[in-house]
Specification:
This protein is mostly beta strands and 306 residues long. The protein is built from 2 helices and 21 strands. The C terminus is likely disordered.
Length: 306
């Protein structure tokens, strides 16, 4: 009986020793796969205002591609060689951007049969230059128009706006006109940035040869960045249109085109509001300031910045 128990104990010890030396016992636990590294969020798309009143939205996911949206269509583009600026081609179109004097201009053209060179300009567009990256600062405080309030407000849209000519100034071949933008709706709304401006002739045709260039600040205060303007019902904001009245003889210009009407879209909107305005801009361009609170009547204007 004792012999049997001893043998049983010996067999059990031997079994445990064999199990301890088996391959399964020597293997460490399976490693836990590492969590994927967080990906860098894609840069947000940017919007360009075009002379025709259209807007073009472009995303630049990396240094060599662009994703362009225009009139409900999407275009995948790749970067291509250019003498200056950044040029992208693909999907039958060419997108060419360049930065100058604080603004980024761009042209959208239809590619020719060889799919390499733009042959017909579809749109001329612009937006403020993004400029150098600076340390984050305080969020700008919205500025109410005279008589305005500061509630949370949705962006202003064309049907609730009315234009007016608020006068201007002239000197040394330059002209500037203040264009009032009044909220004729029943609720407050907000305006931030540059309006889209299209010039038309007497027959209502768009004068596409005249560029509407976004100009930071205004004729009187150059270089000021756009800031939010909130409009109470019936309150007004304003922006400036500046132009030259001297024909550019170096480019063979002897007369300047006659404008009879403005078509204006609020920033981020596509519904235009119109106003009759007769003037003759030379050099094929007008400069458009950001929208700002309208200076009350009787307040002296500051001296132009040199």
């Amino acid at each position: 009986m004792r012999l049997t128990a001893a043998c049983t104990t010996a067999v059990s010890v031997l079994a445990l020793a064999v199990a301890a030396c088996s391959p399964e016992a020597e293997q460490p636990p399976a490693p836990i796969p590492p969590s994927p590294a967080p990906t860098t969020p894609a840069a947000p798309p940017v919007s360009y205002a075009c002379e025709s009143g259209q807007s073009i939205t472009v995303a630049y996911p990396d240094d060599s591609t662009a994703q362009l949206a225009y009139k409900g269509q999407a275009y995948a583009l790749r970067i291509s060689q250019s003498a200056s600026g950044a040029r992208y081609v693909g999907s039958g179109v060419e997108w060419w951007t360049a930065t100058r004097d604080g603004a980024e201009s761009a042209t959208l053209s239809r590619l020719g049969p060889n799919e390499e060179v733009g042959t017909a300009v579809l749109e001329r567009c612009s937006r403020p230059s993004p400029g150098p990256v600076v340390a984050p600062g305080p969020v700008p405080t919205p500025q109410p128009a005279p008589g305005g309030v500061l509630p949370a407000a949705a962006p202003c849209r064309g049907p609730q706006l009315k234009l007016s000519n608020e006068g201007g100034d002239a000197g040394a071949g330059n002209r500037v006109s203040n264009i009032g933008v009044q909220n004729i709706g029943t609720t407050a709304c907000s305006l931030t940035g540059y309006p889209g401006v299209v010039l038309q002739d007497r027959q209502g045709r768009n004068l596409t040869a005249i560029r509407s260039e976004q100009s930071p600040g205004s004729y009187f205060t150059q270089g000021q960045a756009p800031s939010p303007v909130l409009l109470a019902p019936q309150a007004k904001a304003a922006f400036e249109i500046a132009w030259n009245v001297m024909p550019n003889e170096a480019e063979g210009q002897t007369t300047c085109p006659n404008v009879t009407r403005l078509r204006v879209t609020a920033p981020g909107d596509t519904a235009a509001v119109s106003m009759d305005m007769a003037f003759s801009p030379c050099s094929n361009r007008v400069r458009v300031s950001p929208i700002r609170p309208l200076t009350p009547t009787g307040t002296p204007a500051p001296e132009p910045t040199v």
